[in-house]
Amino acid sequence: MHEHKGMISIWFFIGVLLLAYGVLIFAAGVYDVFQPPAKPVVLSQLHAGVWWGLLLLAMGLFYSIRFRPKKTQGN
After folding, report:
1. Which residues of 52-71 are buried (b: 16+ CB within 10 A; e: fewer)?
2. pLDDT surpassing 70 at residue 45
3. Is residue 3 part of a domain?
4. How far is CA 12 from CA 2, 27, 59, 69, in A?
5. Does the pTM exceed 0.85?
6. Would you say 67 and 18 are in contact if contact means Cβ atoms under 8 Å apart?
7. Residue 18 within any structural domain of the chain
8. Measured at the alpha carbon of residue 18, what is the angle toward residues 32 and 70, in degrees to the nearest 5?
9. Is residue 1 situated within a structural domain?
């Protein structure tokens, strides 16, 4: 794939979005672990928010690092 000068890959932005969503979902999942709701949902003991948040964080880190903008030497 040919990269144009000064262009940033869309996959980098997807990685940043996955990171942001991962942080939010993970934080909400951890909050639910320490402050369980009065009426928990079915299978709440599996803590899906924590696992899903960690998965999104890992994917976001991978995409953000793999497709981060490269520094060019000179102009």
Report:
1. bbeebbebbeebbeebeeee
2. yes
3. no
4. 16, 23, 11, 8
5. no
6. no
7. yes
8. 145
9. no
pLDDT confidence bin for 16, thresholds 50/70/90: very high
Q: How confident is the model at residue 75 (pLDDT cuts 50, 70, 90)?
A: low
| d(C-alpha 10, C-alpha 56), whole Å | 17
Burial of 15 by CB count in 10 Å (0-12 exposed, 13-18 middle, 19+ buried)? buried
- Please state the domain count of the chain: 1
Tell me, yes or no, whether 35 lies in a domain: yes
**CA separation for the pair 51, 6 (Å, rounded):** 36
Domain that holds residue 61: 11-66
Note whether 40 and 3 are within 8 A (CB).
no
